[in-house]
Amino acid sequence: MKTTAFHLQKGGVGKTSMSAAIAYELSKRGRTIVVDIDPQGNASSWLAKGTPKHELADVLFGKVKAGEAVMPTAAPDLDILPTFGLEGTLKVYGENQLANEPYIFEDLTEELSRLGYEFAVFDLSPGFGRLERAALIAASEVITPAAPDYFSLDGLEIFDSELAKLTKAMRKGPNHLRVICNAYDGRIEQHKDIYQQMSFIKQYEVYRVPVDPAFRKAQALHVPLQALADHQAAKKETLETIAKIGVLI
User: Tell me: the pLDDT tens digits for 179-207?
Assistant: First the structure.
């Protein structure tokens, strides 16, 4: 099973938007599951069809099997392993028990593979603590959504350094070759400058996703971006870029 994480140590850059949209693209190729590893549970409130009875933390604590916690979404072949935004215990697990189970997400991916999933997408919080580190070492690849601003440039360099340390310490880690320059506006000179600089940090392959209100519409309707009706649809460039990344994973 191919496992892709979306992460940067900076909030508001579109990690959840990109992980959900690209997960939908992957579901066209095979059964796909989004694993909501953000204690805020934004991906779950967006995608889960119905009210979850169990959350990711219940699986990690050993209270239920993964298959008992998985929820469907509005898209065929796309499911989610949710996290409760309110009264959830994922943060508690990360702060307490995870120190003794650093490879718990590798165990989880094996369980999800046995359930028939071909792709897993990890939506992570902006932190770089035990929870995020454990998820990253279980991922095949990490893709970084970033805003077209100078703070994101700094964040990319810091993230790359931290990821290198993690890989050295754990003797393994995900490939980190792709960056998504999100909310890009080609009319703004700073955006064009940031976009160019991103590719020079580590010779990343950098993709552009424009400012697109369709993401908010999809989240409000609890459907994947690509499932919006024609009169609400995302911009052509948005859909083309997301489709391109989905094919390459």
Answer: 999 999 999 999 999 999 998 888 899 99
